[in-house]
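Human
Can I borrow your eye for a moment on a structure tokenisation matter? Give me a protein, with the fold worked out from its sequence. Write it directly below this note and I will take it from there.

Assistant
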Amino acid sequence: MKRLMTSLGALLLASAGTLLAGSAPASATVCTTRGCGGIVRNNSSGLVRVSNNWCWGNKYVYYGNTLPCATTWSSTSYKSFFLLGHPDDTTNYYYYYDTDAFRVDARCKMTTWSGTHVIYDNSTSDTPMWVKINNDSDVTITLACW
């Protein structure tokens, strides 16, 4: 009985710590239900790189060809990235049910829709730009590179 009470006390403390500390960044969790995390929909005429991992909790843009924490090209593994075709969305790929980022290629602008139009301007850079999306985001790419 004493062991049970000790285990219950530890569980309650752990739960309280989680509630007080807030939720973890999108890349720290794995979800296994379609639509449980960030979604990217490609309605553009081009291909869009997406990643199911993000390296930082407080950084929203990263410049580089690949993310340091997602260097593997794969649609069938975690901590990776791949090209999302048209028309397609990340809810069709089990390992991307929680998509964490999309890439705007160098010398490109990308237009997205997530309740409002947003233009990501990377047209003056020679380096691709990765953009973090939140767990509850549903981002539609409408123009991939213009």
Q: What stands out?
A: Confidence is low (pLDDT under 50) at residues 1-27. The first strand starts at residue 39 and ends at 42. Helices lie at 2-21.
